[in-house]
Structures are given as C-alpha cells and as structure tokens.
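Quick start: what a row looks like.
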Amino acid sequence: MNKVILMGRLTRDPEVRYTQTSNTLVASFSLAVNRRFVRQGEERQADFINIVAWGKLGEFCSKYFKKGQQVGIIGRIQTRTWDDDQGQKHYVTEVVAEEAYFADSKRDGEGTSSNFDATFGAMPSPSGNSDFEISSGDDLPF
C-alpha cells in the first residue's frame, strides 16, 4: 500500500505547467511539514516535501492555494529518474496528490470565499440509507 497523508504550509504559490504530449495541467508546490517532536533546547524542525497535482486537482490547487496557507494532502509517494543534457542522472521523490483540503481555520484564511467546497478529491457520495447528513456549513456552531 502506498498512501501518504500530510498537513503543512505551502512554501510558495503552486507553479502550473502543461505536458507537451497531452497538454495536461500539472501544479507543483512544496509543503513545510513540522516534525512531531522537538528536541529540548532546539527549534521545531520541518521537512519540505514536493507535491504534484494533475488535471482538475492541479487546477483547484493553483487557483485556491497560496504561499503560507495550511493545507492537507492525501496521495502517494512516487520516485522517478531522468538524465539531463549533460548525461547526469537525477532522482526525485515526490507526493502525487489525490485529494487536497484547506486546513486553515476560517479566521486564518485571507478572504477565502464560501462559494466553493473546502475540499477537492475523492469524497464519499451520500446515499439514501446513510445515518449522516451533508451540511452546507451554514448551520455549524463554529
């Protein structure tokens, strides 16, 4: 199984490009993810993890994610290699996003609109026999 769940802050705005062959959108960005423990007398450390989001998810990330914003990403780890023009081999490990979420509180968000859903990705669809109710968010107590 290859599943990654991350929560961190964007280190830069997502960068968008399109593939040469199929003109598919791909958004790239990096998340600063704090380590769980802090050694006594040291500052908290973070890992900087590269994320790629393809297609509609990449479009969502490029449109709504901004530097400094806290987000949640669910995806998979992928490694790849390539040779550059000088024949030098390069290795990359990155997370391919499958779901993306806003993780800032409503107060922390800078002018975010309530006209769009706060998540993008594989969300369960409601069924008639569910004990749960989908809320528009307007009736929440916080």
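That is the whole record. The two ends are 36 Å apart (CA to CA). The domain at 4-120 is CATH 2.40.50.140 (OB fold (Dihydrolipoamide Acetyltransferase, E2P)).
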